[in-house]
Amino acid sequence: MNNNLLQWFNRLDPLPWRWDKDPYAIMVLELMSHQTTLAVMLKRYPLWMEKFPSFEALARASEEAVFLAWEGLGYYRRALYLHKNAKKIMLDGLPVPTIVAWRSLWGVGEYSAAAILSRAYDLPILAIDVNVKRIIMRFLGKSFWDKKDAETFLTYFHGDFVQNPADFNQALIRLGQLICTKRVSYCRDCPIAHHCASKYMLRLESKNKKDIIRQDRYILLGTFEDKFFLEKIDSGIGKDFYRIPEIQENIWHELRASQLDDATLLKVRKHHYTKYQDTLYPLLIVFTDEDDIVNILQKENFSWLSKEEIKEKPLLSAYRRIMEDALAWQERRDLF
């Protein structure tokens, strides 16, 4: 069975990061790929690397620029971790090539450290995440995980692993994405099925449904002299991103009724994050007095932003779509 896994891997169309050896590029890949689908990674990873191609480039960037580049990927703390790590490495240099040293960086766990060391330094360290655990447990016919299982698994592939740990770890990732998936395994196409204890015996795993907390949020997008009133989030989810301010539902309805000539209901949008799903009801009002909206919203951490300035500010993805709707409305209005 030696070489079967790598031969299969080498026949696949290579992903853009297949031959990366730069510790920076691999760290970005690992942190960005957490909670991000492959389809999204294929679009966003090259864009990030074009904008911030090195630790130095990322360290020089402002936090706002980093968040803007990360916009839409969610779990924004990952972007903050990358930024902090870049600054630290520019001051202290790269960590020595050990698991302990790399785990000292923000957001770098056991798996990410192993992936970086195996690919950037060719060290024979198996990168084990939940998907690799699943492959190993199925291969060995185990129903629970034991750390010793990794050693047992590697006895079947020792030559491949030691000679090319970078490709071996990447091959396991691709195997989990394409063949030995969470819900079903395509055993006929599996390059390591010959010795797999669970071959053709797997049943679909039930998909755990998360309890989604649904919330209605009534938001007011005020505009004055072609600038928009936005607030900066100062804590919690989306910290340091911008959003459209929320107001009480009864005030929202009162404003909509009393400002008929100047109020426009924009498209209702959904905002999904962690275990929440917010339904956003955006009301756009053109104000003739700047103080009116300030008094209505009573927000402290706010900014009046032009169309050009908004493009340079990081917004939570649902709010970005609402802003695009508002700007499109503004352009239509200006035509008449």
UniProtKB/TrEMBL annotation:
One example of a Gene Ontology biological process annotation: base-excision repair
GO function terms (MF aspect): 8-oxo-7,8-dihydroguanine DNA N-glycosylase activity; adenine/guanine mispair binding; iron-sulfur cluster binding; metal ion binding; oxidized purine DNA binding; purine-specific mismatch base pair DNA N-glycosylase activity
Pfam families cross-referenced by the UniProt entry: HhH-GPD (PF00730)
Keyword Hydrolase (UniProt): yes
Annotated ranges, domain HhH-GPD: 32-178
Keywords attached to this entry: DNA damage, DNA repair, Glycosidase, Hydrolase, Iron, Iron-sulfur, Metal-binding
Similarity remark: Belongs to the Nth/MutY family.
Protein name: HhH-GPD domain-containing protein
Organism: Entomospira culicis
